[in-house]
Amino acid sequence: MQVLVVGAGVVGLAIARAAAIAGHDVVVAEAASGIGTGVSSRNSEVIHAGLYYPTGSRRAYYCPRGRRMLYEFCASHGVPHRKCGKLVVATNASEIERLEAVYKQAQLNGVEGVEIVDVATAKRLEPALACVAAMHSPETGIIDSHRFMLALRGDLEDRGGMIAFNSPIERLRPARGGWEAAVGGSEPQWLSFDAAVNCAGLGAQRLARATESYSSDRVPRLVLAKGNYFGFSGQPVFSRLIYPVPVPGGLGVHVTLDLAGRMRFGPDVEWIEREDYDVDKSRALAFYQRIRDYWPGLPDNSLVPDYCGIRPKLTGPGEPAADFMIEGPQQHGLARIVHLFGIESPGLTCSLSIAEDVVRDLSS
Description:
Blueprint: E1 2-6, H1 10-21, E2 25-29, E3 46-47, H2 58-77, E4 81-82, E5 86-90, H3 96-108, E6 115-117, H4 119-125, E7 133-137, E8 141-143, H5 145-158, E9 162-164, E10 169-175, E11 178-183, E12 189-193, E13 195-198, H6 204-209, E14 223-232, E15 241-244, E16 254-257, E17 263-266, E18 270-272, H7 284-294, E19 303-313, E20 325-327, H8 329-332, E21 337-341, H9 347-362
Helix pairs in contact: 1-5, 1-9, 2-9
């Protein structure tokens, strides 16, 4: 089949690669001038173990499976990564019940090696840490996400696939058993494909509404959740990722490390109406307060605005977190088209696992 994948983020590239490996002719249409310039370039670069996600959810299925696939991919393709581990911490007695709930869910999700540890063990692992209890997740890691995307692109192109940059897809319509795509940009035209995948991130809902024969009633709303990060100006004091117990809308302001040895904190949750990638310096005050719950030694004036990302959520403040929404032929009844909505964290970790299922859906 000739397959069109809309969006060259990490999940789009993983799907395109899987389709090319399966023997399909693949074109990725990307509105920007490079790969991974949206949601994929503005995250914590964490390989998630799969601790939190409700039983039966897509996240609970894709994350542990995707994490195992991702470590194997990194090893075989030379993608820089490190299985550094993570501590989820309760900083007062009222949080212990939530910590225990995370532990139980991790066990249900089949995550290997998780254990509740006492304060002495947690302090031995991370001397700067303050907590009343912690859960250790040895399978959590960090990754160079851009190198990962470059490796996905390399596999795609090695198998004859291609990426068309500066090529926004404005409409999709069924035609002769396949799909036609209206390509915008400097040379607008209609192109024909046997199958199409809408993996446009923040633009997925817009393209779904512009897909003929796909009911607009099936398109979920898009809720923008901005996540701000602040960098630490000193040397890292932690060797593992440190997460508080989860908060509504996210996993809390946590310690993340990168492969260059830098330490940063984030993301928070800032509900916004339109795309905005400026970090508000005034939000640092709330960061200091949250971080000092588990690191009382955080020095004054040590946080500097770093970057932010926008998560394409499907539910808003005060509402239960929505799962990934993957709409294939079995859901909507249209042949050879898949729409993906709300692919935020842990989308990077899940990408290779999602890709296998999407390519299978295209052939069903």
